[in-house]
Amino acid sequence: MQLAVLCAVCLLPGGLALPLPPEAGGMSELQWEQAQRYLKKFYPYDSKSRDVNSLRAKLKEMQQFFHLPITGMLSSDIIKIIQKPRCGVPDVAEYSLFPDRPKWTSKVVTYKVISYTRDLSHFKVNQLVDKAFAMWSKEIPLQFKRIRVGIADIMIGFARGAHGDSFPFDGPGNTLAHAFAPGPGLGGDAHFDEDERWTDGTSIGINFLFAVTHELGHSLGLGHSSDPNAVMYPTYEARDAKDFKLSQDDIEGIQKLYGNIYDFKKE
Ligand SMILES: [Ca+2]
Ligand SMILES: [Zn+2]
Ligand SMILES: [Zn+2]
């Protein structure tokens, strides 16, 4: 599938206090272990540069993504990023490895909400999902249609822990959601961690509109953006709900895949 292959958790032999490698940058053992797990999960592809030290290469990739000095060593800046809640999709999209970036080829793409959160009413979830789709469809010649029965291209749902796709959620915090790039089966589907506290912006928690707009970007074929203003930025930051909209970077990305809606209308 288009989502990353998650690696098994890497554990050091218990009780054996190994000296930390220079890449640990003088951080604590706990932080170094946290960083290793994070790098393996969100930077899963081994770089072509046969760097024997793949963790150093991954650290460099991460530093490049987040516009940090590229040292290949752990730093407090990285620790700060690691501790933020975020999307479960890696920062190096798998599709960028293939010449054919997956996208929907039909003009109408169907979607369906298959399970709900206890935190918001069904009505509210449906309304916010519609709103998120509208934000994307405004920019591209693609229509989205909600269906109530049968299998939709994009199946949207909430689940906790293991939920049938080999990318189990991790309890409150950390990974908030993930989605699959366009394709059959799981392709296009978007999953939200029911162990988060979801909100429509009227209370404390993770703003569902922000999260679903981001995940639908993946469902349409976008990877993560390193532009902090982009909806497709990988970490979650509470934003002003009133001004929430796609950034220029998101719009350019999605139009690169599907073209501009105005060009389409002229035809
Ligand atoms: Ca979580
Ligand atoms: Zn994401
Ligand atoms: Zn899932």
TrEMBL record:
Binding site for Ca(2+) 1: 119, 196
PROSITE patterns given in the database record: CYSTEINE_SWITCH
Organism: Myotis lucifugus (Little brown bat)
Lineage: Eukaryota, Metazoa, Chordata, Craniata, Vertebrata
GO BP term (any one): defense response to Gram-positive bacterium
Domain Peptidase metallopeptidase per the UniProt entry, residue ranges: 100-260
Signal peptide: 1-17
CDD domains assigned to the protein according to its UniProt record, in alphabetical order: ZnMc_MMP
Cofactor annotation: Ca(2+); Zn(2+)
Coiled coil feature spans: none
GO MF annotations, alphabetized: metalloendopeptidase activity; zinc ion binding
Protein family (similarity comment): Belongs to the peptidase M10A family.
Protein name: Matrix metallopeptidase 7
Protease found in the keyword field: yes
Major location category of this protein: secreted
Any single GO CC term annotated in Swiss-Prot or TrEMBL for this entry: extracellular matrix
Residues that, per the record, bind Zn(2+) 1: 163, 165, 178, 191
